[in-house]
Specification:
With 250 residues, the chain is α+β, with helices and mostly antiparallel strands. It contains six helices and 14 strands. Strand 13 and strand 14 form a beta hairpin. The longest helix is centred in the first third of the chain and has 20 residues. It is globular. The two termini are 34 Å apart. This is YlmH/Sll1252 family protein.
Length: 250
């Protein structure tokens, strides 16, 4: 509880600084719970708006920017994308997300300095706060027993193939519980405890109401299951049900 209070105060301080100095201020990378806290403070952050971004579309860990209403200059998020790859593919191990993250944390880097870590067959793409990029490039030389090299990616959009599975089905309405059940091919009864247990986030905001109505484009993250985007209602059936589409990230 004390940790959460400290976090709330930090958010309020960043918003106040943005307003008083007429500059954009930034958090470090926030997890879903922290993003929810920021969203819950919206009414208290007078004179500024806030927006989150993690370096690419549908990122989970995000940096929040506090933007004064009277801002007159262009700005960008302090995010860098790094490409981590074996020095010699012939001697490379099969590395997991846990392997890469463990190697980074062993360098003494705080988790909030690091965003999403995307893995492909032979390398990884890491999003980090930009002032940490050179340190990681110089210091990360090995992941487990595999010697690696780190370079700044030429683009912020990850080269990792992100697979989206389109799922279509009919629901009585676009309620949260119904769409989660469709996306994860389960029953509403099995999904309800996840919602009520605070494990479901819509656009970074924790939602505990089963009947919450979703809007086209909403991104839903379910702890332990994954995330999906509500693509929208395709049509209405003769019986008054909605034919909908969701894009599940895998």
């Amino acid at each position: 509880m004390q940790k959460e209070e400290h976090f709330r105060k930090r958010i309020q301080d960043l918003a106040r600084m943005a307003y008083e100095r007429d500059i954009v201020t930034f958090t470090d990378f926030l997890d879903l719970n922290e993003q929810h806290i920021v969203n819950s403070l919206t009414r208290e952050l007078a004179g500024v708006t806030h927006a989150g971004f993690g370096g690419y579309d549908m990122s989970e860990r995000q940096i929040t920017a506090f933007i004064p209403d009277a801002l007159s200059y262009e700005w960008e998020y302090p995010i860098c994308c790094l490409h981590i790859r074996p020095r010699d593919g012939r001697f490379a191990e099969t590395l997991t997300h846990r392997d890469y993250l463990g190697a980074l944390l062993n360098l003494g880097i705080d988790r909030n300095m690091l965003g999403d870590l995307l893995i492909d067959e032979s390398s990884a793409y890491l999003y980090c706060v930009d002032h940490m990029s050179q340190f990681i490039i110089q210091e990360l030389t090995r992941v487990r027993r595999t010697a690696v090299t780190v370079v700044q990616s030429e683009t912020m959009e990850p080269a990792v193939t992100r697979n989206f599975r389109e799922i279509k089905g009919t629901v009585a309405s676009v309620r949260l519980d119904a769409l989660i059940a469709l996306a994860f091919q389960s029953s509403r009864n099995r999904m309800v405890p996840l919602i009520e247990g605070g494990k479901v986030f819509v656009n970074g905001r924790m939602v505990t109401s089963n009947g919450c109505a979703l809007r086209e484009g909403d991104v839903i993250s379910v702890r332990g299951h994954g995330k999906f985007r509500f693509a929208g209602v395709i049509s209405e059936t003769k019986k008054g049900r909605c034919l909908v589409s969701v894009s599940r990230y895998s």
